[in-house]
Design a protein that fits this description.
By secondary structure, this protein is of the alpha/beta class. The protein has helices at residues 20-29, 53-62, 89-102, 115-121, 153-162, 187-198, 213-217, 220-229, 244-250, 256-259, 311-314, 317-327, 345-353, 356-363, 413-422; strands at 4-8, 38-42, 45-49, 74-77, 107-109, 130-133, 147-150, 164-168, 171-178, 206-211, 237-240, 271-276, 283-285, 293-295, 306-310, 337-341, 366-367, 388-391, 407-410. The longest helix has 14 residues, at 89-102.
Length: 430
Amino acid sequence: MLRRNWLYYFKEEETMGNTVIEKIIRHNTGKDVKPGDIVTVNVDRVMIHDIFIPFVGDKFEEMGFTKLWDPDKVVLIYDHLVPASQVDDTRHFHKGDEFAKKYGMKNVHRSDGICHQLMTEAGYVKPGDVVFGTDSHTTTYGCVGAFSSGIGYTEMASILGTGTMWIKVPETIKVVIEGELPKNVMSKDIILRLIGDLGADGATYRALEFSGSTVENMTVASRMTIANMAIEAGAKCALFTPDEKTAEYCEIELNDYQKSLKGDEDAKYLCTITYRAEDFVPVMACPSQVDKIRDTSVLEGTPIDQVFIGSCTNGRLEDLQAAAEVLKGKKVADYVKLIVTPASRKIYLQASKMGILDTLAEAGAMITHPGCGLCCGRAGGILSDGERVVATNNRNFLGRMGTSKVEIYLASPKTAAACAVAGKIVTPEV
């Protein structure tokens, strides 16, 4: 049984300290803020992906704007529909290219990978930034200590014209994890467990702030997995304190403001949740609810038809490497398909150079072009009635990866790879 502690604080008096999200908003606006305040922030960067660009463009011109507030701060990424799997997909490419050319946009990625991977990988997001994107998993950039959140195309059109966005300052839930994780547990297991404990709406419009020795020892990639799935508990954003790992990843030297982005001891939190890392075990989100979390051990023996390793949640180099370690010298089970999709072209090339792709291919994996692929159900291995898939992405809703009668189990790359070899759900040994 996983041990966790929940401490709730409901203080009427004001405290002197601030949470991370309060510090970011205060720095951005120049005003002291508290949860519930409505403020207008100056936006540092925005991301638009291929699905939404036609609607953003139309709304932008409908609002009467004739120029972007700052073309250099706008990033357009084709990832969900690449390569096109339906005739109508090409319309999105044409509309996007027309908009970018008309308004002088230079930051356009047409085949480089998934938007959330590229935004940090390519250096568009820095610690302490305020960033919005037309995708709910924009919470991902909290891995480097940025306030990032998903919005709709109307809000995005407004930002393109004004460079500003109104928000309500969220309350913060503090998550503290101490200790060393078991070798068969990954950060994916942590965030799935947290979502199971909170529920799919347990953090709605709240910030999740992560700390503790386990978090400090995590790679930026592992933090990215957790920040990515924060939205699955309803969170407005997820935040990690920038450190030397962050600085190295972002290829910057942290300034005083960025170094200050940690929760103060006397900050006011809605609640504090604590875990011991040693108590975590491999888990899965069972069909068809992201908060229906079960220990993998109780699901062992369930037959599967397919495994997917990839997505903006778990398509990074360390994820592919973890899968390769499990698959080395082994073969994918008969009648089981294993699809691997790197999150970016850079990761694809790194994995190729390191021999990781060779290991995966020798085991029987089908390796696809970087992009969203099967995660969004547009291309690359959709399933049919009665089929069952173990996947490393972030959602298992009905109809997500094929028909409404497909069963989707969400898991870590280690667990997914072990299942591919066994042809059924198993607990990874490494």
